[in-house]
Amino acid sequence: MNEKKLLKGNEVIAEAAIQAGCRFYAGYPITPQNEIPEYMSRRMEEVGGIFIQAESELAAINMIFGASAAGVRAMTSSSSPGISLKQEGISFLAGAELPAVIVNMERGGPGLGNISASQADYFQAVKGGGHGDYRLLVYAPFNNQELWDLTMKAFDKADEYRNPSMILADGILGQMMEPLLLTEYKEPGLPTKDWVLDGCKGREPRVVKSLFMGDGELERHNIHLQKKYSLMKEKEVIYDGVFLDDAEIVIVAFGIAARVALSAVQSLRKEGIAVGLFRPVTLFPFPEAQLADLASGINSMLVVELNAGQMVEDVRLAVNGKVAVDFYGRSGGGILTPEEIYDKVVGSRSAQYSK
Known about the structure:
By secondary structure, the chain is of the alpha/beta class. It has helices at residues 9-19, 35-47, 57-69, 80-85, 87-95, 122-126, 144-161, 171-175, 217-235, 255-270, 288-295, 311-319, 338-353; strands at residues 3-8, 24-27, 50-53, 74-78, 100-106, 137-139, 164-170, 177-182, 239-242, 249-252, 275-280, 282-284, 300-305, 324-329. The chain folds into two domains: 3-235, 3-Layer(aba) Sandwich (Rossmann fold), CATH 3.40.50.970; 240-353, Rossmann fold (3-Layer(aba) Sandwich).
């Protein structure tokens, strides 16, 4: 390992999963993530794992439930409407405290939409798209190197917290080819899976469930889950920043939108405009405290997304009125350009100085 390769984003995720010990994959074809099941169908046989093209997205996510309950590192992938179909199963995984990795290569919506890249599944991913009070660990990669690194981390953190984790990317990242360093996977030392259903073998039987019918039992279980999510907020926030030390205006963006925004920031800096970029890498837990601290020393924020305005709500909650938060986005598969963001920043700045 530790070699440089030129790979497509979807292939990066699939190989990273295998290197991290994923030995069960179930999925169903949908553009723009089809290279993941295609790659898995070949490689799983080579590493002694199991690949299943399920009859539907519903079947796939419930197969993941079964594999995870048996102690196997399991993954499924899909794109936006397919992930919508998996929501009940994802809620079951979270309720039963089963680790799994779910990949969403987002496309335009709502409905069947189109196959162009989008970030319109932010709400679904970070707010708990299924029923009940649950959360996923949600990672938003920026490039192929992060697709590699964060996929491995997603498996480790899913096991550590006994909770599903999600790689929330998009059609551009999934289809884009760029070089990356294939680093060797190193298991960080994880808790023993003393809950798996692997046959009693003379021990007391175990139960994996999300149905709690006793008096007050479900509420106690929910309190336990919320404590776990609070621990994630305390320990698992990841973010990145560029040109923040002297920034007067900060662009907040994630994933592919952040790559586009970075080009705009570099152009604006050449013009002498003090702009920085703040990039949440974990969307849950969200870097609330870091954004709140940042807001105290700047003039304004601009949130940039490939949607009609979703993460912007969490940014506004985080800064709590300390600074004006503007939004620029394109929805339905429309792709942002650096020039559009440049013009938005210049226009907003001119309006501020003209007051």
